[in-house]
Amino acid sequence: MTNKDARTPASAQDEKSQEAGKSIGWHKAYVEGSRPDMRVPVRQVHLTNGQAVTLYDTSGPYTDPLVDTDVRRGLPPLRENWIIARGDTEEYAGRPVRPEDDGIKHTSPRGGLRNLDAVFPGRPRQPRRGRDGQAVTQLAYARRGEITPEMEYVAVRENVSPEVVREEIAAGRAVLPANVNHPEIEPMIIGKRFLVKVNANIGNSAVTSSIEEEVEKMTWATRWGADTVMDLSTGRNIHTTREWVLRNSPVPIGTVPLYQALEKVDGKAEELTWEIYKDTVIEQAEQGVDYMTVHAGVRLPYVPLTANRKTGIVSRGGSIMAAWCLAHHKESFLYENFEELCEILAAYDVTYSLGDGLRPGSIADANDEAQFAELRTLGELNQIAKRFHVQTMIEGPGHVPMHKIKENIDLQQEICDEAPFYTLGPLTTDIAPAYDHITSGIGAAMIAWWGTAMLCYVTPKEHLGLPNKDDVKTGVITYKIAAHAADLAKGHPGAQEWDDALSDARFEFRWEDQFNLALDPDTAREFHDETLPAEPAKTAHFCSMCGPKFCSMKISQDIRREHGGSRDEIEDGMAQKSKEFAASGNRVYLPIAD
Amino acid sequence: MTNKDARTPASAQDEKSQEAGKSIGWHKAYVEGSRPDMRVPVRQVHLTNGQAVTLYDTSGPYTDPLVDTDVRRGLPPLRENWIIARGDTEEYAGRPVRPEDDGIKHTSPRGGLRNLDAVFPGRPRQPRRGRDGQAVTQLAYARRGEITPEMEYVAVRENVSPEVVREEIAAGRAVLPANVNHPEIEPMIIGKRFLVKVNANIGNSAVTSSIEEEVEKMTWATRWGADTVMDLSTGRNIHTTREWVLRNSPVPIGTVPLYQALEKVDGKAEELTWEIYKDTVIEQAEQGVDYMTVHAGVRLPYVPLTANRKTGIVSRGGSIMAAWCLAHHKESFLYENFEELCEILAAYDVTYSLGDGLRPGSIADANDEAQFAELRTLGELNQIAKRFHVQTMIEGPGHVPMHKIKENIDLQQEICDEAPFYTLGPLTTDIAPAYDHITSGIGAAMIAWWGTAMLCYVTPKEHLGLPNKDDVKTGVITYKIAAHAADLAKGHPGAQEWDDALSDARFEFRWEDQFNLALDPDTAREFHDETLPAEPAKTAHFCSMCGPKFCSMKISQDIRREHGGSRDEIEDGMAQKSKEFAASGNRVYLPIAD
């Protein structure tokens, strides 16, 4: 979304430039809301023609040179006063943090708590929850007709009226994930009437990666445009990693509580219990997790439906729950205790992301009986969640060939009463490991065009290993492309202005503007300079692709210059001539029979 | 396309392994046709479970350890005897090669001809053409009901009957580009009933790149899967570069003769004449160019239609012809002399690629009046070409948002009597320079699913610079993904077997098989080893993404092992139990009103 009229002081730009080195050409700005404490961040790109383009910004205070950030202190609690002012929450002692929360066994030789800051060094904070278990969710407020500061904030971000935001949330067609214990976030909204969003997964595994790396991946992902981040850590120090990520994240954080619960029973699925799971959900809700993937749709009777699949169950959570169901030959404890779970989430405004534990893991398994049986259950659970005023989105596949993608979104929208769809890809072929950001970017763009509200990114390392910083960037950029292509196809107001600004810069050979307007200015500049590094080339009316003699845009401009200065003049003059030509028959050959 | 039954001697595999180092796990094999001189190359992947998968192969003799290739000698003239045996062509002296052919001005201090092998060192060869100007095209043969060796060759390659190939060519729904002066090619076919093909552009510009580089890019592009290559050279030594590329290319070569013609008039569009253009077409036809982009659809009356565009005319050829039309205020000399051009192409079996000189260069200009006016003219020219038995395909955009893509292919198929559509992307957004292989890969997959026969790749350097070897590989791999995703969506027979083979390997943790079946085995292996380099990891039942405890596929397998060995056993046992559960009501919650 762009706003050509926006302006910004050059001084601020210079500061930013010096501070962020490569970021010359744009700076962080804020749009004021209806109150002084509501300043919505935007990315202002300064064009060499004096205009400015304003873009949606997810990078948080880290890109504001006037804000001094410190990961050990965490981000300022932007929403704290808004939450307190509502008067419907209370602080309480909260659940004590135990070594097991970090996956440390009592038998463990060296406790993880001892070898790093288990307790986040930032300001001490007691957890907060709804008074006497009342629902303190944006959904509850929206249904009551209240427009919260969070709703106004996203309205400014999306260039829509606050009432539209309230309506979409009230109808369950959009979610605004904002745990009362995560006041640091800059509110954002997920729904098909708004800009398509992108989630980036981070998280260490038992095999590799550290807390510092994960926090860095989170800030790096948001810098490139991730709208939310899921911490899928499964190894040691899982509680502590999450605390650091939450306190430093300007975007909503999602998790899969089942992973930590499994750690607490030493990875033995059959030893999982509702009590351990519930304790884990409360633990994470108190930390401030904004949305949680819950695989309550993986039911005992559906497991046999996966038996003849080519790749069985590929969702971690799905396979864990299937293993539990079979081990006990009982219905899923998540499905059986879903209403109690709703009460817990409602008290913190944790949003459901109902997981598709039976999503297909290969082209062969797409749109099969197992997948759609679970989807119907998710539709049922969505209605229950809504009864408890819990915001809910629905997760989707996975691996799906192009001709089967639309059926997924259409069915989900019908079965789940238009609840926001949140899909992983889908990957449109299985033959390109190391390029699954592309096999899935294709499917992601299509399913987003058709109504998916948020896309979970896939990195080049999918199926092969844990993504590093470069993979995270590649995954985010690829998915920002898919999301924006969908915004264009959906005719989202303002979406095309960004493309138009870049195309104008391209036609007018404003190279610096092309770089600064690009999703990834650094790489665009680097690629250009590989073949034409000299500064003059930045103003040259050609690039190394065609060379000066063959630049079609240069020739187009020459045409316009030589045949009338303005576009209108040339058109008038030429239109006249061409009319004469048309009058003369307008064709050289007679129609061909046969 | 795969053939699980195929087998291959281990010895041959070892040879290959030693020869090509990284290529362990697959080797070049041949499928015999109906005659000893017809050996159709395939890529045989050897799986660790003893099976083999046979894939389409475009890499030419370069990947055959038993063939000793030498770029200074060129490739063996595979088709020579087939062409001679038809007895409808004759050798002749041919047009003398002049310094101007290499862009050397008489005034030039050092003639390009002197500072490199202008005359290709390989075997001397006289050009060949149809006797007394008769059409020696595959279209003419197909219409006469003849199944040529070339047709049988592609039938074997595509796993279809030769009659299907003949029918599609005769109907003009497919082309088999094969200049009688390019006997080195391994015949391939372009049509919507066959596998979607990918073209890779190479070519130096006045600014950079050398002959050796271009030949290397061509062999590199075909190694990764390019089905045809276009030499878009525009600088010095253009004739000589083309000669080297042609003599060493196992795939059809396309060009845009207008580029060389413009060099001959020192880049002054207005000085172009039909005679200079015609002389250039004959020059290139004698060298063996298999298909030529001709911008005959850019007509005088259409130029004004581009005047109010955001990015004007972005096709080099289109802008050159527009400049010529305006300078003389005359109808295009290509349009006016199209019938004579048909006679020339028919005598060599050069295939038309009717260029879309007015394709949109930005999202804002997509599907506009200028683009579709030209398309209607291309439909008219297609019918004329068919009268002369010239094989013809139609070029398409460009920059098109997703919701406007289908209109392009549908209109083209209707207006051009289902002639093969050959599109550049289309790019689905303008905001990601440096990632336009992805912005366009999305559009390419969609338009191919809907019927486009060949996709012209876009590399990460598009809009920024001349692609290097890495960019060529990235562009080809991205487009092979788009093409295969489309083959899957079209339900092309055999297409899914490749995905299934890889998915089976994935589910069974056959890592080496996953790598060898991947579009890019080297990168897949490298990414895996980044986090788990040790050899044992190649047999491990997990990767670093989730670690051993969380591998969903491992859990799925455990489930199957523990609950009955075979998939059927587990299903029987579980189905029984789940029936009982279903009988008991199968749900925990009552339907929700509201």
Automatic annotation (TrEMBL), chains A, B:
Pathway: Cofactor biosynthesis; thiamine diphosphate biosynthesis
GO molecular function: 4 iron, 4 sulfur cluster binding; phosphomethylpyrimidine synthase activity; zinc ion binding
Binding site for Zn(2+): 399, 463
First-level EC class: lyase
Taxonomic path: Bacteria, Bacillati, Actinomycetota, Actinomycetes, Kitasatosporales
Domain of life: Bacteria
GO biological process, alphabetically ordered: thiamine biosynthetic process; thiamine diphosphate biosynthetic process
InterPro entries cross-referenced by the UniProt entry: ThiC, ThiC-associated_dom, ThiC/Bza_core_dom, ThiC/BzaA/B
Function noted in UniProt: Catalyzes the synthesis of the hydroxymethylpyrimidine phosphate (HMP-P) moiety of thiamine from aminoimidazole ribotide (AIR) in a radical S-adenosyl-L-methionine (SAM)-dependent reaction.
Keyword Signal: no
Enzyme Commission number(s): 4.1.99.17
Origin species: Streptomyces yokosukanensis
Gene, per the UniProt record: thiC
Region annotated Disordered, chain positions: 1-27, 93-114
Keywords assigned by UniProt, alphabetized: 4Fe-4S, Iron, Iron-sulfur, Lyase, Metal-binding, S-adenosyl-L-methionine, Thiamine biosynthesis, Zinc
Binding-site positions, substrate: 201, 230, 259, 295, 315-317, 356-359, 395, 422
Recorded family membership: Belongs to the ThiC family.
Protein name: Phosphomethylpyrimidine synthase
Cofactor: [4Fe-4S] cluster
Cofactor remark from the record: Binds 1 [4Fe-4S] cluster per subunit. The cluster is coordinated with 3 cysteines and an exchangeable S-adenosyl-L-methionine.
UniProt GO cellular component terms: cytosol
Catalytic activity: 5-amino-1-(5-phospho-beta-D-ribosyl)imidazole + S-adenosyl-L-methionine = 4-amino-2-methyl-5-(phosphooxymethyl)pyrimidine + CO + 5'-deoxyadenosine + formate + L-methionine + 3 H(+)
